[in-house]
Amino acid sequence: MAKALQSLLFYLITSACMISLMFAQDQFEYYDFSKANLSLDGMATILPNGLLQLTNNATKTTGHAFYKVPIEFNTSSSTSAESLSFSTEFVFAIVPEAKSRGQGMAFVVSPTPDLSHGGATSYLGFVNITTNNKTDTHILAIELDTNGSADAADINDNHVGIDVNSIYSIQSANASYFNDTNRKNDSLLLASGKSILIWIEYDGTNKVLDVTLAPVQTTRPRFPRSIKPSLPLLSRSINLSEIFLEEMFIGFSGSTGTITSNQYILGWSFKKGGKAKSLDMSKIIDPPTPPLPQLPPQSTTLLTERLVIIISITSAIVVLMIIGGVMYLYQKNKYAEVLEEWEKEYSPQRLSFRTLFKATKGFKENRLLGAGGFGKVYKGELPSGIQIAVKRVSHDVEQGMQQYVAEVASMGRLRHKNLVQLLGYCRRKGELLLVYDYMPNGSLDDYLFNTQNPKSLSLSQRFHIVKGVASALLYLHEDWEQVVLHRDIKASNILLDANLNGKLGDFGLARFHDRGMNIEATRVVGTIGYMAPELTAMGVATTWTDVYAFGAFMLEVVCGRRPVDPDKPREEMILIKWVATCGKNGVLMDTVDSKLEGNFSAKEAELLLKLGMLCSQSNPENRPSMRQMIQYLEGNASIPDISFDTYEFGIPNICERNNETGTTQTTTSSLANFSYDTVTVLFGGR
Question: Which residues form the signal peptide (predicted)?
């Protein structure tokens, strides 16, 4: 009996220790880092007084300090919202070696504590030129940046930013804190050599990340607990389940460039799933400051010689400053941009014109990818090595530039493998520049209709592209936080990457709507042949009008011709009508692109043709949703029977406007000068 009680007691003590250890992994509080469970690399070291030093006076080097035990984030669980929540609080100090402030540091959440591959200078030690802006990096960083870098599109040389897998911040702001006494933000100099307190908190339920700063009380005695400002400096909606893995490591990363600084962590607390323990300010040790250099005694002659040298150098500096001022004014005018007050909230997605000018080699003609009514598109390469496409379009003031830039910023948040990624924008001298990922294989339109330099795509490749575009539309219609209507789906707006994957691009006509909101009549915009009958009749754009355009797109992909072709015989001029006639006569395969020369799967061709006609029903409610389209394309659902009677389909009306009477009439002669540019059609109005 006594032995059994001893065994039970040993089991209880062991279990309690294990539970305590597990709990300790999820929360901790450190002031003396010599007792902390940290892994260090690079310049990082622990000083004799227990302070953690990330960097020193070594140039172009990095330093890392990570908590050795991984934090478990159950990203796949139904309770992932709670398991993703965390809170951390730490005191840092950045002591510059000279008047320049050095590079900066960051709090990092990473799938590995080994960031020795991280680049120095503006990369802040957590990414490099290869890993920057790669989604498989899985890194969240809160940067405390003391160097304004054009390569990183920084807003200034004293800012705080939220970074995801990249040195390009998704949100940043000038370093400051909300003063609850005067109810305004007071500036903070990060590289002041003084202690600064920072709170980083993620609410997994509401998916909001808050970052708050405050100066540490410097008078004696210190407040035991520092008072947190009532408003954060940064507050960003972000879904960390898309970034974090099951196990992540937390810690700090710092770097130096040609100018160095000493970066210290003076205290650190952390907790997963709740509020981190507030740090006791009475335990914070002041950061060490570099000693002032002592001048040896100087003779009068030596001082006179030094004075002459100083005067000569000063005169040379004045001349250089005048020359530099002239060059600065020239460069400022050369790279002048438009930046209004309301636009500052979108600044993380704004790229400088200087960066784009250099990336495209001054928008040279040999960098031109294409041109049209919208403007010109140029190929470029950012300093990080990322290849981009830069579209230059004219400002449309009447449509409201503020609303348009807001939608551009929203588009930058869209993330899907079959969407062309919008990286940012710039405004300058009456034009808007949109920056996208570069697609090396150009547009699908070029493969289908380029007769001078024909390119071939098998039907199976076309089928794969159609499925990719359908997946992107499902994401826009049902899976994103808002309903996104593209409103201009056609082959020329489908771009192909290096592996011929189709990506939907050109969101110039897109509109964003909150879910459940009634969609009001809008201007009738789109491309003739792709617009649903209810759109041209009533001016109402819905997901069903996107489905209709997707149907027209599928037909042009299979048939290798546009929805309306004025060069065809009258009975074949309108593609939907011709396909319906052939289907009714039992010769549906006659409509398949002749360039395929019969080398295709009749089953795949029939599936795409029938789905194209199903999307072209005149009654919007008879059209499938994009979720149903995916099921049909994947073979997970049977296609409903359709009749090929032409009256059931929304046949495009080719119309011209009578300028004298204001009436609209159907005509065939108007096709003589028919164009496939995107247009605002006929009687459109708000």
Answer: 1-24
Secondary structure element (H or E) that encloses residue 51, with its range: none
The larger pLDDT score, comparing residue 677 to residue 259, is at 259
Q: Write out the binding residues.
A: 391
The CA distance from 32 to 38, in Å, is 12
The catalytic residue positions are 488
The superfamily (CATH) of domain 444-680 is Transferase(Phosphotransferase) domain 1 (1.10.510.10)
Q: Can you read off the two tokens belonging to residue 246? A: 């099951």
Show Cβ contacts of residue 48 under 8 Å, excluding neighbours closer than 6 positions: none
Asked if the 22-283 domain carries CATH number 2.60.40.10, the reply is no
Provide the CATH topology of domain 341-437: Phosphorylase Kinase; domain 1 (3.30.200)
Binding-site residue positions for ATP:
391
With cut-offs at 50, 70 and 90, classify the pLDDT of residue 624: very high
Strands (E), 139-216: 140-145, 159-164, 169-174, 176-179, 184-187, 196-203, 208-215
CB 217 within 8 A of CB 223: yes
Structure confidence by residue, pLDDT tens digits, 283-316? 988 888 654 333 344 445 556 667 778 888 888 8
Non-local CB neighbours of 247 within 8 Å, separated by 6+ positions: 70, 71, 72, 73, 111
- As a whole number of angstroms, the distance between CA 592 and CA 594 comes to 6
Token pair of 595, please?
């360039």
Give the distance from CA 138 to its chain's centroid: 14
pTM of the model as a whole: 0.51
